[in-house]
TrEMBL record:
This is Carboxymuconolactone decarboxylase family protein. Pfam families: CMD. It comes from the Bacteria. InterPro entries: AhpD-like, CMD-like. It comes from Mycolicibacterium hassiacum (strain DSM 44199 / CIP 105218 / JCM 12690 / 3849) (Mycobacterium hassiacum). Coiled coil: none annotated.
Amino acid sequence: MTESDAPLLTPPAADEWGDDEYAAVGALFGVPGPEVPRAGSGHPSDPLNFDILGVLVRHPRLARKFLGFNGFLLQQGELPVRLRELVILRLAYVRRSAFFWGEHHRVATRAGVPEADIARIAGGAAEFDGTDRLVLEATDEMLADGRIGPATWQRLVGELGTHQAMEVVFVFGTYAMLATACDTWRLAPPPGSSRLPDAAPHPTAEGEQ
C-alpha cells in the first residue's frame, strides 16, 4: 500500500475499546454493550473483524444513533433482502465504491442472491425484469437526479406498498452516505472480497475520436 492509498481513519486497537464503543456496536447487533464480543476475542462478531464498525465508533455517540437506525433497516425492515442488496450493489457499482461492493457482494450471496444476478447489476435495470427492474430503475433515478420521479414512485408503491417503497429511499440514502464516508476514509475491502467490476465505458459521441 502506498502512502496515497493509506486509510485516513482507522479503527481503534483492541485496548482502546471501552463502554461507549461497545454500546455503539450493540445498537447495531440489538444487544446491550456488555453483550458485544470483546475486541480481539476472535469471536465471529468480534468488532475488530469489521473495519467499518471501528471507524464509526471513533465517534461513539454518533455511531450509537446511526447504527441503531442501520440495524433497523438490516434486521427489521420490510423490504426483502434481495431488493435491498440490489439497491446497495447498484449504488456501489455506479459510485465506484470498492469497499461496499466487496462487503455487500458477500452479504447478498449469503442471503441467496445468485452470482449471475449480481454480475448483471453492472448492466443496470435493463438486465432485470419485474420488481427487480423497477427497484433498480428507482435506484438509477436517485443516482442521476437525487430523487425518484413521480411515475416511478407510484409504480413502487403499487408494487411494494408504501412501507417498502419508503425503505428503498432510506436504504439508498443510508448507503450513499456510508459510501461517501468510507471512500473518504479510504477503507479497503476485506481480504478475499469480490472485486468491483470495471466501469462500463461511456458511449462515444458521433464523430468523436
